[in-house]
Amino acid sequence: MTALVTRGVFRTVRNPIFTGMIVVSIGGALMVPNAAALAGVALLALALEIHVRYVEEPHLLATHGEPYRRYASFAGRFVPLIGRIAR
Description:
Layout: H1 16-31, H2 35-64, H3 66-72
Helix pairs in contact: 1-2
């Protein structure tokens, strides 16, 4: 079992790498503004949301239990304060 990391950038966002992926894809869509680029951003965001909600979060809840639930109640999923889990 790995330790639950709640410091640094993880203090406010639970998935900073995925946040970065979305930001980079938005940047690409702004550089090449067409329907395919915008659809790519939307599909990436949707795929990451589904993965985090139905794969990562259940695993982390099963592994870390109440400490993860406490952490997820104040750290946002991809953006600070948005996507918090109710305690």
